[in-house]
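Two proteins were folded this term; both appear here.
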Amino acid sequence: MLGPVILAASRSDKLRRVISAAPVTKPVVNRFIPGESVEQVVPIIVDAAAKGLELTMDVVGEDITRPEQATIARDAYLELIEHLKTLGLGTRAEMSVKLSMFGQALEGGHELALAGVRPVVEAAAAIGTTVTLDAEDHTTLDSMFAIHEELRKDFPQTGCVIQAYLFRTEEDARRLAAAGSRVRVVKGAYKEPASVAYQDKAEIDKAYVRVLRVLMEGEGYPMVGSHDPRIVAIAQDLARRAGRKPGDFEFQMLYGIRSEEHLRLAAEGHRMRVYTAYGTDWYGYFMRRLAEKPANLLFFLRSMVTKN
């Protein structure tokens, strides 16, 4: 029951100021967000690649209020891509982007977001990698899917994310499970009303499996975004039943969560991609990680009351 409370707190400017100023916050945040600049995360990228892992990189930041902030977001991703090019790691790391960071919620936001993200997709393609459009709250999804469709006309490898807890997602999955598509399925981390989303964990888990089955039996490339051991096992079984081999789909997990599992799956021959966020505007991202898993919240609270 704490999840919705934490998600509401993620929108609170007052709590943002309190938590950001707390002395223990930064060390805890570092568990999930390894740096504020691209220079700080380069060693993470190099280390992960050396271990046989792949990455999807997210420059954190949402809810922008001015078009010039969208330009800053675009330039941050272009800087990241330039670093990947220099390192020769373009094929080991892709980008994940939230269109809200590219101005989607502003006046004329659909066109603004499309114009801002296109150069990022172009630059990514030039170094042999791609971009996945993250899903946000349900009111933004029609715009996100339209931008995804438009980008795929020139860059068919562009991926997108679907959220299992939404009632609409099974139908979205059927539409997206076509040849050449790349689709990441997650449970969902935004506070959504009962009119559009399952609220019960068991129902969400069942919906996730239904959606995952659609993707595995389809012609696209499924990306399994989950830390749940049961989901991981079910994904492997569904892939086997659908005739998929390791490499015909991938697992994705967050940086700082179940790191040993990352290595285990990679050692078994699976493509294992670590979702790695960085940047200064980390508050909203951090709070959603706490909401997703009670253990993350307990870790944070223990840190708040201990010296180390």
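Next, the second protein.
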Amino acid sequence: MRLCADVGGSFVDIAAFDDAARIVWRRKTRTPVDDWAGFVAIFAEAAEAVPCAAVSIATAGLVDPVGGVVTSANIPCIDGRRLADDLRAALALPVTVVNDADAFVLAEATLGAAKGHERVFGIILGTGVGGGLVERGRIVSGAGGIGGEWGHGQVIHASPVAPEAMPVFACGCGRRGCLDTIGSARGLERLHRFLHGVEADSIAITRGAEAGDVQAAATVAWFCDLLGGPIAMLLHAVSATIVPVGGGLANATGLIAALDARVRTNLLTPVTTAVVVPGRLGDEAGLIGAFVAGG
């Protein structure tokens, strides 16, 4: 069997898979973000409970495909570590580590909504914006492990005449006007506040739009306008044919359908079937992606 984990800033979801890719044991525990010994202990205890031959991890943060160094602002105890090497030494087991967004896309391309597509660009619309590119069942990681990270780089600029007319928000990466600031669940909330001066969470906004609330519908429509063009450009650039969506906003079916419609109006080649689709694997996607990556 193989131990697979989905490591986030709040929880470590760890499971044992058999050779048929079935989960036979699973546990979720708080992430010891500042405690390396506690982090190792999660895996050591799991390996003791369920004897395994290898460990595969999907983690928040960048994973350098050459040196294996992980960059993770949310989990300081693994930030700057060669995580696979360090865990391998601690556990005496083979260890594979991939980015969690890459794992999501790999899972959906292998067993989920994008199965059968040769080139898949998946996106995460959650607390932030993430993504990954999979070609013929393999992750395209890019230099420094930033392949698929489409949320950063300024795309919204203030007008020199009316600087307050555009939502140029500060981004956690240190820049301003990144897609991450408007394309996530928090971004949807920022847009709503910018447009209407009203505080509302993303669930209330998306549900309101589906129920016919005028303000919420305007926010969702603008959100789709702002993301529809960039997604279409990505599809043109990498020749992907489907975009599975993960993260909290993937559950807002009306928003995803509206985003798909906007993307397809921006494509140079007409497409009659959905391109932007909710992922199918739910909270198992990261685990499955880790399993496939470690295969």
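The chain has nine helices and twelve strands. The longest strand covers residues 23-30. These notes refer to the second protein only.
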